[in-house]
């Protein structure tokens, strides 16, 4: 019998379960190291050298170097851990969350001030909301791409 | 005899803490958020607790992936605000209540909840932002706090039902403590929000308010809601709301007493990525 994972049908969402946690252990523990000011300085001075001290996969390291948080999450990262990389770079949680939508900072902030993303069309994969895979990236970036 | 007199519920958005710490509370963006807590600050001056039992979640601060306790009770004499990546918040250290905390741990474990007992722990915004919202910026916090951390970071997180039942066990534990103490229980986190992926920024005002209605009038029904409903309707981080059910389960009506009085209710969108919800319920 498989495990019950009913959350697999939600668009634009990765649930950090035991399976993701196992994949992302070293990535997330690297993030934890950034809670110390001296480690943040060492990381910023030479990101590649700092990352090479951790037994992470090359893909995970590249996602960190690119600040590609969607990729980092797919590779087992958890947002609360990954947030520490953003904090090290002086980014707010809103900037980090917004970066995963493809919207620019102003677009994302405006969406939140206008009441946030609507649930309509975003409950299940296959509906037609703005979080569905075929509507990525969102905002101006998406309009340029299409 | 110790007793739980009231429960307080509030979101614990880190940006709210940053707004306080950086003196931005008067800015147009933040004004409506803090206005919703003006009553609460006055209320708590008039209803000063002897101890706060504060239910929150740790955000990869005290607990990394090395250890992931589902329920952790802080029994230390003090808890230091953590450096979460921007440097520690400039707030007072949190003074614990080791005697009551140990008593509750003993009683609740005997009621079949397997708590992790923590004698050394830093606390993050999940705990300190609610303190700031209710007490402002004092030099020292006005009363001791028992931190109670719930895992809502790695799935599976405890169910709403489990949390609600745990609240009932905590009520019994407090009531069996000999010293005459006025205890408040706070449930924090939520409301709808999603911090990750292309669905980041999700807010569901209608769902949040229907859930608040149910939490107040029929918490046993709210407790039956499965995780998937929180995640689908209120966002991946909206599942933090199960922590409110611990506080709600500790109220007198759940054990056959009178329904609580709703002293205050507030809802606002947005604070950063999040819908802010806030309730104060008093036992009658």
State mean pLDDT of chain B (0 to 100 scale): 97
Q: What distance separates the N and C termini of chain A? A: 43 Å
**Helical content band of chain B:** 25-40%
Instruction: Specify which chain pair forms the largest interface.
Output: A-B, 61 and 47 residues
Q: H/E series of chain B, N to C?
A: EHHHEEEEHEHEHEHHHHEE
Q: Biggest sheet of chain B, open or closed, and with what strands and sense?
A: 8 strands, mixed
The quaternary organization reads as heterodimer
Provide the helix percentage of chain A.
40-55%
Sheet with the most strands, sense and barrel status of chain A: none
Give a description of the structure.
The complex is a heterodimer of chains A (146) and B (284). By secondary structure, chain A is mainly alpha-helical. Chain A has two domains: 13-91, Dioxygenase LigAB, LigA subunit (Protocatechuate 4,5-dioxygenase, Chain A, Orthogonal Bundle); 101-145, no CATH class. Chain A has helices spanning 18-23, 25-33, 37-45, 47-51, 58-66, 69-74, 79-88, 93-99, 105-113, 140-145. Chain B has 284 residues and is an alpha/beta fold. Chain B has a domain at 3-189: LigB-like (Protocatechuate 4,5-dioxygenase, Chain B). An eight-stranded mixed beta sheet of chain B has the order 6-3-7-2-8-1-10-9, sandwiched between helices. In chain B, strands 4-5 form a two-stranded antiparallel sheet. In chain B, helix 1 crosses helix 5 (125-135). The radius of gyration of chain B is 17 Å and the shape is globular.
Q: How are the secondary structure elements laid out?
A:
The complex is a heterodimer of chains A (146) and B (284).
Chain A lengths: L17 H6 L1 H9 L3 H9 L1 H5 L6 H9 L2 H6 L4 H10 L4 H7 L5 H9 L26 H6 L1
Chain B lengths: L2 E8 L3 H8 L9 H5 L2 H9 L4 E6 L14 E4 L3 E2 L14 E2 L2 H13 L5 E3 L6 H11 L9 E6 L9 H16 L6 E7 L16 H13 L1 H5 L3 H8 L7 H8 L11 E11 L2 E9 L2
Parallel strand pairs in B: 1-8, 2-7, 2-8, 3-6
Antiparallel strand pairs in B: 1-10, 3-7, 4-5, 9-10
Helix pairs in contact in B: 1-5, 4-6, 6-10
């Amino acid at each position: 019998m498989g495990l019950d994972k009913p959350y697999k049908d939600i668009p634009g969402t990765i649930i950090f379960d035991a399976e993701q946690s196992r994949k992302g252990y070293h990535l997330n523990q690297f993030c934890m190291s950034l809670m110390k000011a001296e480690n943040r300085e060492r990381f910023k001075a030479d990101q590649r050298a700092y990352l090479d001290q951790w037994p992470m996969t090359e893909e995970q390291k590249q996602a960190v170097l690119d600040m590609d948080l969607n990729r980092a999450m797919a590779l087992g990262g958890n947002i609360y851990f990954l947030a520490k990389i953003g904090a090290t770079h002086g980014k707010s949680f809103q900037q980090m969350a917004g970066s995963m939508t493809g919207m620019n900072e102003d677009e994302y902030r405006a969406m939140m001030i206008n009441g946030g993303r609507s649930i309509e069309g975003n409950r299940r994969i296959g509906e037609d909301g703005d979080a569905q895979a075929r509507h990525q990236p969102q905002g101006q970036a998406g309009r340029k791409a299409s | 005899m110790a007793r739980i007199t009231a429960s307080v519920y509030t979101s614990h958005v880190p940006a709210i803490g940053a707004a306080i710490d950086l003196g931005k509370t008067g800015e147009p963006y933040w004004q409506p958020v803090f206005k919703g807590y003006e009553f609460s600050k006055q209320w708590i001056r008039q209803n000063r607790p002897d101890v706060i039992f504060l239910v929150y979640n740790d955000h990869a601060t005290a607990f990394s992936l090395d250890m992931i306790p589902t329920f952790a009770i802080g029994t230390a004499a003090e808890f230091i605000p953590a450096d979460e990546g921007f440097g520690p918040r400039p707030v007072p250290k949190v003074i614990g209540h080791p005697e009551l905390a140990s008593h509750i741990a003993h009683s609740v474990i005997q009621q079949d909840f397997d708590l992790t007992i923590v004698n050394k722990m830093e606390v993050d915004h999940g705990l300190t932002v609610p303190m700031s919202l209710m007490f402002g910026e004092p030099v020292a916090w006005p009363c001791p706090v028992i931190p109670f951390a719930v895992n809502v970071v790695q799935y599976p997180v405890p169910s709403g039902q489990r949390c609600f039942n745990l609240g009932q066990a905590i009520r019994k534990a407090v009531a069996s403590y000999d010293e005459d103490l006025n205890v408040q229980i706070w449930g924090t986190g939520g409301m709808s929000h999603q911090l990750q992926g292309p669905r980041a920024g999700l807010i569901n005002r209608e769902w949040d308010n229907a859930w608040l209605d149910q939490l107040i009038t029929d918490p046993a029904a709210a407790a039956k809601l499965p995780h998937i409903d929180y995640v689908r309707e209120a966002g991946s981080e909206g599942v933090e709301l199960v922590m409110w059910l611990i506080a709600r389960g500790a109220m007198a009506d759940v054990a056959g007493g009178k329904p609580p009085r709703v002293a205050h209710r507030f809802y606002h969108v947005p604070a950063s990525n999040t819908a802010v919800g806030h309730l104060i319920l008093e036992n009658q």
